[in-house]
Each structure stands twice: as C-alpha cells, then as structure tokens.
Amino acid sequence: MNPISNIWNHPKTSATGLLIGVITIASVFSQQGITLGTAGSGTMVTLVSGLATALLGLLARDPAPSKVNSTNSTAKLGVWALIALLLLFTAGCSGTSVAQNIVNWTTALQSAVATVDSTATLLAPADAPIFTAATVGFDAASNLLVAQAKAYLANPTAPVLQQLQTAVVAFQQQVNAALLQAARIANPASQQQVLNAINAVATVVSAMLALVMSISSKGAVARMASQSTIKLAQVRPYLDEGRAAELVAVHYGEPVNQAAMQVAQVEVSAAQAGF
To answer: Residue range 29-53: average pLDDT?
Structure first.
C-alpha cells in the first residue's frame, strides 16, 4: 500500500497520528530546552500564523468539479487546517503563553514567602534564629523574581530573559540552601513547620524554573545549571512531593494525580539538565 495515498485517503486517521506525533515531539523539545525563537522582527508564532493563513486561503480556492471531489477537497482542507493549528500550538508553548504562566505563579510565590515570614514566630526560641538565618534573603529574591517575570512578559527579549534566568536560579539556590539548614533543627515539631514553609516556596520556584527552562536555549540551560551549586539530589530528602502536587493541582485546577506526574517530570528534567 502506498503510504502517501493512504494518508491522503484517510485524513481522520492521519490527523490523529499527526496530533500524537506533534505532541510527543513538542514534549521532547521542551525537555531539551529547544525553542522556536524569533523570526525577523516578529516571532515564530506570527510567522507560522501568517503562513498557515496563506496556505488555507490557497487550499480553499481549489476547484471542485464534482460532489466527490468537493468532499475530498473539504477533508483535505481540514487536515491542512489541523496541521496549521498544531504548528501554532507548538510555537505558542514557547512564547507569550509561557511568560504569562510564569507571571501567574508570582502570586503564589509571594503568598508562600509571606508564610515563611510568619513561621518564625511559631517556632521554639532555639529554632527560630536558625530558620530566620536560612530564609533571610527570601523577600528580596522573591521581589526580584516577580519583577523579572513581569519585565519579560512585557518585553520578551533575550537580554530580559537572561535576567529572568539568573533571578530564578539564584532563588532556587537560596531555597536549596535553606532546606539544608532546616535539617539542622533538632526539634521534630519545629523542623516539620520549617520544612512545610520552605517546601511551599520550593514548589513555586521549581515550577517557575521549569517554565523558564522551557523557553531557554540548550546552552542557556547549561549555563543556568552551572550556576546551581546545591543540586537537587542533595535536597531531595527534604522535599515533600505530595504537598507539591497539592499546590500544583490547586494552581492549575487539575487532579492531584495529574499534578503529581508533573512534579515528578519537573524533578527529572531538572536533574537531567544538571540542577
């Protein structure tokens, strides 16, 4: 059987296969830090959108000499429309939608940091100084990361992205250091309160880091990882994946088991990247 004619004669089946293939390829690209970048003075999103519009316009003018040919032409046009929409979807994953997603996490970040600020008053007198010293830079780091995220959304250029990359890695390192210091707290009740508070911040920062990685080049991700001196493997014993999944589920309005898979994938991708 001729595969070309088979694709052409069975557009619905072919479209389904194409959908699965594009989603899989897009996922691999995202994990490897491959982006679509810019095109001239615009972006790949606008370029693909323009090409898709032109292509669909040309196909819509195909002659239809018979009813059968007209039906086939309509089916084929549907396939091309799906292809164009899938290309737009893939491009959009690395564009403004990701920048907006990063900004959407900033409210949760500020809330988590505020919880950290109030946790010290709940600890035993001997434990509060350790916790305060471990998290002293959280407010400044949070404010800087929020500002950089909003700056990139407003002006998604390479220099602004690099500033965002630096800010999110710096905060991630502060959080990792805080987790290690929290392990020094001997009081079990105090340690649990401390870890709960820091884990909330860690979840948000990890989510933002993963989003930043998804719109960064492979070289940029490698540079970010080289700035990460406290690795994920060192703090993994103090991470609460269950609590992280709950926070992600609430943020995205999705089932906890789905969020748990996302949290696990973020950890794997970060570790593979060298974090």
So the answer is: 45
